[in-house]
Structure formats: structure tokens, C-alpha cells
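Pasting as-is:
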Amino acid sequence: MKNVRRVAMLVVLAALAVAAVGEVAEAAAYPRLSKPQVKCAQSGVPRPAAKWAPLVNRYFSKYLWTYKNRHRRLTVNELHRALWVIHYESGGDPNCVYMGHYGLFQCRLDHFKGRRPLRPVSNIATAAMLYVRRGWQPWAATAYRPAPW
């Protein structure tokens, strides 16, 4: 009976270890900007938009690194510009809806493909995919506005 419990405990511990290794591997699978670089990108951006920098860093870095296996890194300037786009498009309000555009980056509903548009993670991930494929063109009216970048 003791051996059965030990084996069961070892199986559970092995499963937890595999799950933990998978999470670490996912986090280390692509390079992100460091905390000082994120702070630098946040400088000058109004606080409601700047608070989204860690999520923008995470998803933009992930999609830039993995899209078509190009292995391109996110730059501080790109993160800074993305935060300004959030400021101009939604004012940092994740529940912003205006004329069929949703969330922080004001993406159209047809870009979400089953994701919830007002969820910040979904909105930022969708914006990252759009940015990787089309650059700043979906936000041309705001991405090239005069701003301190």
C-alpha cells in the first residue's frame, strides 16, 4: 500500500515538474525588453496608457519573434510608439468602443477571430498580430501623429 502511494505521489510531482518546465520554456522562448527599457519606453506617455507597457512588451515581443520564424526583437522605440497609439486611440481605457472599433488599440471586430475584444490581453495580442503583418498602417492616423518619440 505504501508503494502505491509513493508511486502516485511521484507521478503527481513529475506532472507538476513538467508543467513548470513548460511555463519556463514559454517565458524564455522569445526575448523581451528588460524592466529599465520598459521604464524608458513609458517615459512621457500618460499614465493610463503607460500602465499597459508590460503586456504590450510581452505580446509584441512574442509575435515579432515567432512570426514566420523571423526572430526580430521589439525595440524601445516601437514599445513607446505602441503606448502612444493606446493613448490616442482609447486613452488607456480597455472598455473603449467607438464606431465598431474595440479596446485599447481600437481594432475592428473582424480581427479578433473568436477572442473577446474588450479583454486587454486579447486586444493587445490582436494588435501585435496586426503590427507584425502590416506595421503601423492600421493605426496610420495616430501612429504618425506628432508625439515625443
